[in-house]
Amino acid sequence: LIPEITQQSSGINAEYGGNIMVSVADARPKTRYIVAVDDSMNSMTEIITCISKNLGTGNVMNISREEALLIPEITQRVFDILSVNLRLEGTWIKEGAKFEWVSETGLLENIGAVVDEYKRTRGLLPIRLCVLGPPASGKSLVASQLCQHYKLHHLKIADIIHQAIDKLEKQAARAESEEGEEDDEGAQQAQETLDLLNESKQENNDRYEDQYIIQFFMEKLMSMPCQNQGFVLDGFPKTYNQAKELFGNKEEPEDEEAPRLEYNEKLMPEVVVSLDADDEFLKKRIMNLPESVVAGTHNTEDLFLKRLAEFRSINTDDQTVLNYFDELEVHPEHIDIAADSSSNMSQVVEKIVKTVGKPRNYGPTEEERLELQRIAMEKAIKKEALEKMELQRKEEEERKETKRRKDEWSARV
């Protein structure tokens, strides 16, 4: 990944390489070697850190030469390229060629455009899904299997809130550290936010107000992992207004003549699934759960009936969360879970996978590619063996039939 993406960091990328060729052919400079470099003076560490933040976790691990050369993807040539310590200056290209530079100020300042081009040209597009339905409809079970199949991030309300609070608490704890006034200011803001959250929770029956939950979700959806790989929203948003606040487009288009979209394309799920079932089916499903599984969860009889009644009460009028998606032509796919006879709702998952299609948010690793080749080879060998057995069977039947006819003919003669 690093050699590929750093190639695109130059002001001369593949898309505009033709312009360089044309300029050189027309002007025929006397200089034999032409060097095209951008105006940045970034180190490899800065470049790799920037790539990691925008395409990965943001973490960077330093390894020794010996460790690097043990990695199959890093050949001696790649290692030499990545470890060379050389500063270049643009020659004739900067002054003699006349064309539009793409990333003249370097990778760090143009990382957004470079990442977009990288994903677009390779067809690596995020998959955004949303699974909705009443309590006990199997949303989390289905969502977890979809995440495993497509390598997506599973977004559950409880997890999102916990992660956001944990992040704020860590930021607030910096107030006691000795890392400078800037950190102190950030820590103070984090502590103020925590105080507001605690106050909101006390005033709303131990629940956080929608504005905070939506903000937590929005920050998570806009994070690099979700923007690059994709996500599955598990049971959220629950209401029309929550969906409108979460997905609504609050930005004006850069092009004044372009129509303003009603939703944020970076956040809006491309496939919305509604797991449908009547109350009797859901009650029986809960009643059939072992007591050891139900104990200590929100699936006890009283809590489940309360949650089910609440769900039905906010899904009776024309402003349900599903109506919001319908209005934007993102029509939810309704799936009757009662028709699924499998133990882990695999039939429901298969329907959704068929709708979404093949994974396009990642490519296979070297190990996965070799495994796919092995499976394909085994299938080919098995198919060849079966075809050979079938041919031998037919030849044996023909041989027996020929012998029978000869014996019959001999008996007649």
Give the rounded overall mean pLDDT: 83
Strand content: 5-15%
Q: How many beta-strand elements?
A: 5
Order of strands, main sheet, comes to 2-3-1-4-5
Order of helices and strands: HHHHHHHEHEHHHHEHEHHHHEHH
Number of helices: 19
Overall shape: flat
Largest sheet features: 5 strands, parallel
The parts where pLDDT drops under 50 for at least 5 residues are 1-12
Q: Indicate the structural class.
A: alpha/beta
- Portion in helices: 40-55%
Gyration radius over CA: 30 Å
Distance between the termini: 81 Å
Describe the structure.
A five-stranded parallel β-sheet has the order 2-3-1-4-5. The protein is flat. The longest helix is centred in the last third of the chain and has 47 residues, at 366-412. The protein has helices at residues 2-7, 17-27, 44-55, 65-69, 76-83, 92-96, 111-122, 139-150, 157-173, 181-203, 210-221, 224-228, 240-247, 279-287, 291-294, 301-313, 321-327, 346-356, 366-412; strands at 127-132, 153-156, 230-234, 271-276, 333-336. 20% of the residues are buried. It is α/β, with parallel strands linked by helices. Mean pLDDT is 83; it is low at 1-12.
List keywords for this structure.
413 residues, alpha/beta, 19 helices, 5 strands, 55% helix
